[in-house]
Recover the amino acids of this structure.
């Protein structure tokens, strides 16, 4: 490569690199540094203390909160995977016309471009004490009292997660499925495989990269979430994100920062484990 | 699977798909209907008449905070993020076609930017501004925070697009004497225009709807999602739904415009496309 051309290349990536430097690397470094700082009720004091980590790791509340967050992530992951795979499978293999496939795929992805906060609010008329679900069930005579667990509970939190994030599974899995050479399916059928066997032994293994990408999205989003938990549980459930937000509102910045570092390490560990299954650059 | 009659599996999976779509859109449709609730109506059914009462209520400033102001800020911010996302992703996409030092690191930074939880970015930028003694604001810190979310999407889309791009078009242009700039301006950009519109759609809507990354970075003046979130804790009238309807309306308008322009470009291309073999 000649000199001029490489100079142009660097100029072309400069905006991207600059944004990541200023708004990703430096802020994360700040979190790490501040996590060792001291603080009192009014200000943060530069220092090098391990106290923030000690307090965090020795508190049973922390462990319970992490446990609950991981539990949310696991349940959401399983549900979104199951639903997302089924939906993608239908569109990729049972819908025959390419135009129809595009239309149905778009139908699944459009909500991604609308507001999550609004989509959470929209559950209120369904799940509330006098909401559609309770009125319908009572009119049918199935229940006498309104079900209280529908809104503001772990149930509604998971429901909202599935509602918001299933499309993060649908898109990459659908993408993987569309790349499967259709003659493989024919070969499987000619070799005597039933539809079910083809699904398990041919399609599923070939969808692994899509599943891995979808899983990374869903798990990292749920692990770092706080707004869904706060809105859908009405303050009854906890999450790591919520714990950090509470520390921030009490101006305990170093405590929030220490928690952020631990969360970051945990998320990176999970992602690294899943990345072993897939080479993302090959999937584009 | 590709031939013959539809089996029971088709109908079973088809019903599942319909239920899923209902699950996706049902709640949003419900608040759309309920936002036209009569003045004495509540947060749930039944409808007490039909009116535009709650929409009028929305634009009266004293009633529900600063809706008009936050909408305006979110629209401006979304447009700015869109513009930078399209330009920066496209130019980085061009650069990534050749090898350069640091390409691997930059790629992994983009992936990291996607998987690091939004709240950590928000917290980090908020802390950084605090340590430096600066005031966070929607047009500076929140702008940067949103870019860390939209740029990786833009970059990954550009990768996918350039992987399918036929470089012979560029070579042909160069052979005909076009400069690099002319090649990009008259060949590459027009061919990739539908994808660039797609990147723009991501840039605008992800910024317009972003909550977590705005939380500690928006400063004194709220963006729209922050304003809505604030309202959920103290507003218990259908004005909340009116807000939802207007916000979702804006999103749908943007999505529809993007999809329509992409379709229009495709059609036009099909009509005016190649004239190979058509010479008299």
């Amino acid at each position: 490569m000649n000199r001029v051309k490489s100079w142009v290349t660097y100029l072309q990536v400069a905006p991207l690199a600059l944004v990541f430097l200023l708004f990703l690397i430096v802020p994360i470094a700040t979190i790490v540094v501040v996590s060792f700082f001291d603080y009192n009720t009014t200000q943060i004091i530069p220092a090098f203390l391990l106290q923030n980590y000690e307090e965090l790791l020795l508190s049973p509340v922390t462990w319970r909160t992490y446990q609950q967050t991981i539990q949310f992530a696991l349940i959401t992951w399983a549900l979104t995977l199951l639903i997302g795979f089924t939906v993608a499978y239908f569109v990729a293999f049972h819908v025959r016309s390419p135009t129809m496939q595009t239309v149905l795929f778009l139908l699944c992805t459009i909500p991604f471009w609308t507001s999550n906060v609004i989509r959470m609010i929209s559950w209120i008329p369904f799940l509330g004490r006098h909401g559609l679900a309770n009125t319908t069930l009572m009119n049918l005579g199935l229940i006498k009292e309104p079900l209280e667990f529908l809104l503001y509970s772990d149930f509604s939190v998971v429901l909202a997660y599935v509602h918001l994030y299933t499309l993060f599974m649908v898109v990459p899995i659908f993408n993987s499925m569309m790349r499967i050479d259709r003659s493989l399916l024919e070969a499987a059928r000619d070799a005597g495989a039933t539809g079910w066997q083809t699904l398990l032994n041919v399609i599923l293994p070939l969808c692994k990269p899509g599943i891995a990408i979808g899983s990374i999205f869903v798990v990292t989003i749920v692990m770092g979430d706080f707004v869904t938990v706060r809105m859908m549980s009405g303050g009854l459930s906890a999450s790591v994100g919520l714990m950090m937000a509470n520390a921030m509102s009490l101006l305990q910045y170093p405590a929030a920062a220490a928690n952020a570092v631990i969360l970051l390490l945990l998320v990176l560990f999970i992602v690294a484990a899943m990345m072993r299954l897939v080479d993302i650059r090959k999937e584009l | 699977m590709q031939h013959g009659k539809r089996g029971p599996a088709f109908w079973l999976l088809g019903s599942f798909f319909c239920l899923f779509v209902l699950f996706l859109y049902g709640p949003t449709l419900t608040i759309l209907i309920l936002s036209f609730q009569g003045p004495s109506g509540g947060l749930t059914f039944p409808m007490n008449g039909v009116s535009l009462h709650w929409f009028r209520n929305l634009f009266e400033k004293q009633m529900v905070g600063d809706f008009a102001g936050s909408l305006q800020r979110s629209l401006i911010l979304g447009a700015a993020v869109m513009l930078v996302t399209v330009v920066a992703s496209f130019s980085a996409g061009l650069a990534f076609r050749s090898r350069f030092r640091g390409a691997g690191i930059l790629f992994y930074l983009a992936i990291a930017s996607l998987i690091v939880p939004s709240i950590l970015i928000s917290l980090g930028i908020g802390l950084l501004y605090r340590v430096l003694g600066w005031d966070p604001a929607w047009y500076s810190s929140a702008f940067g925070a949103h870019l860390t979310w939209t740029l990786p999407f833009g970059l990954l889309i550009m990768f996918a697009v350039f992987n399918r791009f036929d470089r012979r078009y560029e070579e042909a242009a160069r052979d005909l004497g076009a400069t690099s700039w002319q090649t990009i301006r008259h060949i590459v950009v027009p061919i990739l225009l539908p994808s660039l519109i797609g990147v723009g759609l991501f840039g605008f809507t992800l910024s317009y709807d972003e909550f977590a990354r705005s939380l500690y970075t928006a400063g004194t003046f709220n963006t729209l999602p922050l304003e809505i979130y604030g309202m959920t804790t103290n507003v218990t009238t259908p004005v909340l739904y009116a807000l939802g309807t207007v916000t979702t309306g804006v999103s749908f308008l943007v999505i529809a415009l993007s999809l329509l322009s992409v379709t229009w470009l495709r059609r036009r291309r099909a009509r005016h496309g190649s004239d190979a073999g058509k010479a008299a």
